Amino acid sequence: MTASTTAGAAELIREALEVYGDDPQAAQALQAYAGRLAEPVRIAVAGMVKAGKSTLLNAIIGEEIAPTDTGECTRIVTWYRYGHTPRITLHPMAGEPHTLPLKRVDGRLVFVLDGVRAEEVERLDVEWPSPALQAMTLIDTPGIASVSQDVSARSLTFLTPEDTPSEADAVIYLMRHMHAVDLRFLESFRDTAAGRSGTVNAIAVLSRADEVGAGRIDSLLSAGAIADRYSRDPNLRKLALGVVPVAGLLAQSARTLRQPDFEALRLLAILDRAARERMLLSADRFRRSTEPEGLTEEARESLLERYGLFGIRLAVVLIRNGFAEPTPLAHELARRSGLGLLVEALDRQFQARAEALKARTALVAVENLLETRPRQGTEHLAASLERLQANAHEFRELRLLSALRTTGLDLSAALAAEAEQLIGGQGAAAHLRLGLEPGSGPEALAAEARRRLVRWRAVAESPLTARASLEACRVVIRSCEGVLADCTGMDRQPRSA
Question: Are residues 257 and 296 in the same domain?
Answer without folding.
Answer: yes
